[in-house]
Amino acid sequence: xxxxxxxxxxxxxxxxxxxxxxxxxxxxxxxxxxxxxxxxxxxxxxxxxxxxxxxxxxxxxxxxxxxxxxxxxxxxxxxxxxxxxxxxxxxxxxxxxxxxxxxxxxxxxxxxxxxxxxxxxxxxxxxxxxxxxxxxxxxxxxxxxxxxxxxxxxxxxxxxxxxxxxxxxxxxxxxxxxxxxxxxxxxxxxxxxxxxxxxxxxxxxxxxxxxxxxxxxxxxxxxxxxxxxxxxxxxxxxxxxxxxxxxxxxxxxxxxxxxxxxxxxxxxxxxxxxxxxxxxxxxxxxxxxxxxxxxxxxxxxxxxx
Length: 305
Hints:
Layout: H1 2-9, H2 20-43, H3 49-71, H4 78-102, H5 108-115, H6 118-130, H7 136-157, H8 164-187, H9 193-208, H10 215-221, H11 224-250, H12 253-258, H13 263-274, H14 281-297
């Protein structure tokens, strides 16, 4: 009788989600992230880079604010405030300005391929910042990855709708992505993820606001441009980060991170179907090299006996 009572008093473990749910969440994230490159390209010449960035980030901050209030505020330390500022300025401020301006000169698929070089930059910066080992796979991956960017630049320079300026701006965005990943790696050890992204959204919006002179007229007009900004803020930013976090908690992190290599292909397909745009042929070769470089940096050297 006592044994039965003890067993019944033990809390039951939470049920695991259906196997297809994390897969679906990851797929939704990839499609939303890919669609962002296409939407930015579609409105790049109608909305200034600053207005597109600040509007998108302010909408995203409003969407996640209820989650922050529900979770509760964890007071950051002085060092954490500095990292929050660096990540917000870099990943969400400069990143959006550079990407939005870059997509005035390169197509959506090309931009998505260049951004894939971000993990190579993360691996490079992690050497001095976190003391990670500079091994042969990392050096080789860097060479191959940046060779891929050079090939993309070569292909874009011969295209009438692309330019080296656009490639350079999107490469700056990739560097800022790397800065954001490294700062969040430290911040998420103690601070809630939703609080980190909320502060980052607001910081990035503040950086973009000085370059957003056309934003008030866009909001007042209430036309298609406003709704594209709302879409970018709600779906590829707020919702996609949430579905990605859900998928990450229920699947292998390494395997899931590799799926982001599908984003350029999805972006290219969406751009072809919606705005009749396909990257130059040489861009696909450069994109393949960039992805190969990223995979090389993730290889671990054999331990020394």
